[in-house]
Automatic annotation (TrEMBL):
Keyword hit for Isomerase: yes
UniProt protein name: Isomerase YraM
Organism of this sequence: Colletotrichum destructivum
Record-linked InterPro entries: PrpF-like
Family per record: Belongs to the PrpF family.
Stretch list, region Disordered: 375-394
Gene3D superfamilies: Diaminopimelate Epimerase, Chain A, domain 1
Keyword annotations from UniProtKB, A to Z: Isomerase
Lineage of source species: Eukaryota, Fungi, Dikarya, Ascomycota, Pezizomycotina
GO molecular function terms attached to this record: isomerase activity
Length: 464
């Protein structure tokens, strides 16, 4: 039956009301869907408002939150943080939150004033998982940490001295019980200078330079630089069926964060041509990481190691190619492919830079062997002799509990030596101060340059 336009427009035109359409004497030539409207049901969830600042800190991005705005106990943090980031219901896209769908954009810094002697603020790092409803507080994030100093000044948790153009912010990281000192530039009114000419690989655009000093970073979770007691060793992996049993050369080290450093040349031959994110490469990386966790005493079993993705971290080490060093302004000492939460890291964790630099200057490690090979740029004479290099807090005292008191780092950033690390987004320079201790090289501090800025400040709304 042909469509009767005239009849439709005359009797049930679009300007008539629904009851007129339903009671017309001439039925329409097609069925009209009627939507059933049911009474609204009572709200089953409560909307919450979480004050927060979203910051880009180094090559990471995350929420910065006052400790007072979260529940009293850390066990209760998971619900608001998972919801705020969008990781509820195991959403890998984090579409219902402010997370960016990757490990480097799903991070949280919780900051509070400190009552510890010689410390300005306390900071807890939280890695919010992407694609699973879990949070990890087992380690620190150096990139996110680089935003804590500016945040503390901007939030008036730290007041710069009158007339000062730079301020040292002393930060106690609760994840690792370690001190980080950040030198932040301020204007004549004491406001943070975010804009500047400093460039860091992995970030397009410049900013004001922030010096991040990891003070005595050794033993962040294990209490030792080499938790297994060995500077290098072989780990046998049996869990990858496609490859069978194989062994890799590793250094298990804990400086700023626990890391499994792997000599890439010792990986099984079928893996060397694989992309870093191929299913086989990811399976191998996780298998090595879990074995390293057990060997370092961070997990009792392989299965238990799989439950904590944040630590230890893992990185493959290799020599920079001749072409890379030829094209670079300054030759790199070593090349790295790091992994974060089971995925290839686009650049390098800041704590990874500290860890790797600590390994490079220490004889007997996989990193030292790779960086010090034939044709290497590594200057072994730059490694401190038994005569001690200056302390990061020269003249400081320590309380009976071991907290650092007094001292200043402003203007004290001439390193004993610099380790240059090539990664996927560029090169990271790590300034290392160390001295010869009873058990070899002892790391006093590692200093890395970062930039950071606020992206928004307000409230994150979520339901529970």
């Amino acid at each position: 039956m042909p469509f009767n336009t005239k009849a439709f427009n005359t009797h049930i035109g679009p300007r008539r009301f629904l009851h007129q359409v339903l009671h017309t004497s001439i039925p329409p030539p097609f069925p009209i869907p009627i939507m059933a409207i049911t009474p609204s049901t009572p709200k089953r969830r409560v909307r919450h408002s979480l004050p927060a600042v979203l910051m880009r800190a180094g090559t990471s991005k995350g929420l910065f939150i006052h400790r007072s705005h979260l529940p009293q106990t850390q066990d209760e943090w998971a619900t608001p943080l998972l919801a705020a980031m969008g990781s509820r219901y195991n959403d890998a896209r984090q579409i219902d939150g402010v997370g960016g769908g990757s490990s480097v954009t799903s991070k949280v810094a919780v900051v509070a004033p400190s009552s510890r002697p010689g410390v300005d603020v306390e900071y807890t790092f939280v890695q919010v998982a992407v694609g699973s409803e879990t949070v990890d507080l087992s380690g620190n994030c150096g990139n996110i940490c680089s935003g804590v100093g500016p945040f503390a000044v901007q939030e008036r948790l730290v007041a710069p001295p009158p007339g000062a153009r730079a301020v040292d912010v002393r930060i106690f990281n609760t994840n690792t019980s370690k001190l980080i000192v950040e030198t932040v530039h301020v204007d004549e009114d004491g406001n943070v200078e975010e804009d500047g000419d400093c460039l860091i690989p992995g970030v397009r655009g410049s900013g004001s330079e922030i010096k991040v000093a990891f003070v005595e970073p050794v033993g962040s979770m294990t209490g030792k630089l080499f938790p297994s007691g060995e500077r290098s060793e072989k780990i046998v992996v049996e869990e990858v069926r496609a490859l069978g049993d194989f062994a890799v050369d590793v250094t298990l080290i804990d400086s700023a964060n626990p890391f499994v450093l792997v000599d890439a040349q010792s990986l099984p031959a079928p893996l060397r041509g694989q992309p870093a994110d191929s299913p086989l490469a990811l399976e191998v990386a996780e298998a090595i990481r879990r074995r390293g966790a057990v060997r370092m005493g961070l997990a009792a079993t392989i299965e238990a190691a799989g439950l904590v993705r944040g630590t230890p971290k893992l990185a493959y080490l290799s020599r920079p190619s001749a072409d890379e060093n030829t094209m670079a302004k300054e030759a790199a000492d070593i090349r790295v492919q790091a992994y974060s939460m089971g995925k290839p890291h686009p650049s390098l964790q800041l704590t990874g830079g500290v860890t790797l630099a600590s390994a490079v200057i220490t004889e007997g490690t996989v990193a030292h062997r790779i960086a010090g090979g034939e044709g290497s740029t590594l200057q072994t004479e730059g490694i401190p002799t038994p005569r001690r290099t200056p302390s990061p807090v020269e003249g400081a005292l320590k309380s009976p509990a071991g907290e650092v008191l007094g001292g200043s780092l402003t203007g004290e950033h001439n390193a004993g030596r610099t380790v240059r690390i090539k990664h996927g987004s560029g090169t990271m320079d790590v300034e290392v101060w160390a001295h010869e201790g009873a058990e070899g090289v002892a790391v006093d501090r590692c200093v890395v340059t970062r930039t950071a800025r606020r992206l928004f400040e307000g409230n994150v709304l979520y339901y529970s």
